[in-house]
Amino acid sequence: MDAVLKDIGAPEKLEIDPDDGSAYVSRHKLGFTLLLKDPSRVKNPEYSSLPKDLPILTTCFYYSEGHEGYTQFSGDLPKGLLLTDRN
Description:
Elements: H1 2-7, E1 22-27, E2 32-37, E3 56-62
Antiparallel strand pairs: 1-2, 2-3
């Protein structure tokens, strides 16, 4: 995960919100946001013993063109999903 965060230009030390244990890394020009959580906030016992300064990637948000100022995500989505799919 460190290599991915470095590659996208995320800060070396993520600012974890003390209220909900989350950190967002948004890349508007690449069309995505990553949500990382303090391991103690992830509801999986395997992660509860990890150090708090080792955030866990829990969610990836991919955006279509223009959503809240994002450029459309250009990578492949799982199972052939498209950002233009409806229903």
